[in-house]
Amino acid sequence: MALSSTSPKFKTSRADTWLALGAGVIALTIALPILTIVFLSFTPNENIWPHLLRTVLPGYVWRTLGLLAGVGFLTFIIGTSTAWLVTMREFPLRRILQWACLMPLAMPTYIVSYTYVDFLNYAGPLQSWLRGVAGWTSPQDYYFPETRSLTGAILVLSMVLYPYVFMTAQASFLRQPTSQLDVARTLGKSPWGAFFSVALPQARPAIVVGVSLALMECLNDIAAVGFFGVRTLTLGIYTTWLGEGNLGGAAQLAGVLLLFVFLLLWIERRARRQQAQLPASRHHSAARRSVLAGWHGILAMLACFLPVFLGFILPGLILLRFAAKRLGSVFTAEYLAAVWHSFILALAASLVVIVLGLILAYAHRSSRGKWVNITLRLASIGYAIPGTVLGIGVLIPLAYFDNSVDTFMRNSFGISTGLLLSGTIAAIIFAYAIRFLAISFGSLESGLEKVTPNLSFAARTLGRTPFRTVMEIHLPILRPALITAALLVFVDCMKELPATLILRPFDFDTLATLVFTLASLDQLEESAAPALSIVAAGLIPIILLTRNLRDPGTH
Hints:
By secondary structure, the protein is an all-alpha fold. The protein has helices at residues 13-42, 49-54, 57-88, 94-100, 109-120, 125-134, 150-175, 178-186, 191-220, 223-227, 233-243, 247-276, 294-324, 333-366, 370-379, 387-413, 425-448, 453-461, 466-495, 498-503, 511-520, 524-549; strands spanning 89-90, 290-291.
């Protein structure tokens, strides 16, 4: 690996060249689905742009914009306010709520959505209880808001996605010098005045990053918006292709969706650059946390507890109620097969992503030139690409490859090879690798910062080859980062739905697709066990995140 300018350099130019080449190949491979979508958008077999513009496209765009605006606003309000309270105020149960505010991340949006649709509909527990208490006998006797609506989707998705803003906002508040808030108070600012004039402006880049991540998750969703009856661009792509069999139309809708994705990516990258320019504080805000007594403390506790209750506790209780009714038939062959499929896919994808992440991390370490930086940017955009777009972008080139090989083998040897990659688990793993490579690269890049050039230099002077240096020195130091990256990727693969739905082989279910299929058929009790399995797996990264966000005032 390349050493610092103050240390002697060994002849590692060949290794650096191979790393840079490997990073370039990875970046081009990840860019392939995007290039495929762009190509299909402009060269479809049938130009249906006029038809899309006259019919469904305006509605898709406006509903997508409405969903993004609503979720963005609510996640900003909920995530920022709860982060400020647990960071800067002392109130009852604050330490528990500090990590509990992350719990909704364990709940996939589609699971929370179908639990709420069942809980709030006319035959659900809430309306049934209201009719029993008030003596109402028909829907005409009372008014209840429509559950399957854009408003319902915004509220439920916000309760699940606000932790993205909570995490980034809390990290920013912890970095801010408390002396600035003290100065604002001495100049006559109230606590909230100091927040709005000092703390919030400094945290704005971090909050923008969190909101951008939440909105990217919104764009990736098809099941939750489908349960609420909101036809967004993402859902439109899925139904246009698989429901109507119109690949060209789906590709053109995907091209429009990519405009939203690239805009969010630009906003996120810009906010991250602004965030990196802010100085970190050496004085932790926990040392100056003010106490909220009486009803002020109770209100603060309720403000932090309510999102946790709505985003995690209530859906979890509903799932447990469903599962309790099916205790005798939980371990069905269908369920066990879905568990096995999910485990194998997630494990294989994690291994692939870890290897690719190591190549990218070492390429970035050995050469920070412009070319490597460009390839790293390309390689890390997969997390922002919605699964429906990714599914189309992956399947088309794989199908072209399969057809080309099959044609060649038929013409040359009279043998049909059939589908080698498309319609197999290899296609799913390929999509997972593209989507979650950024997670692996980020964790491993942070881990490599602990491997100083002096360690490599000392190993080389003792006669270690570059390979033995990596195996004997680097990997033991990288072990925590490797484990963290593998767990995060594993859990995200377990929860991934859109790409899996599109790319899975025939009669092949994972836990996510099984939950989606059963819930779509209103078999909610049967879907409870696989849903709880996904939630249990989702608790793993929550535990990791709570360790990283634990402030010095918490022991």
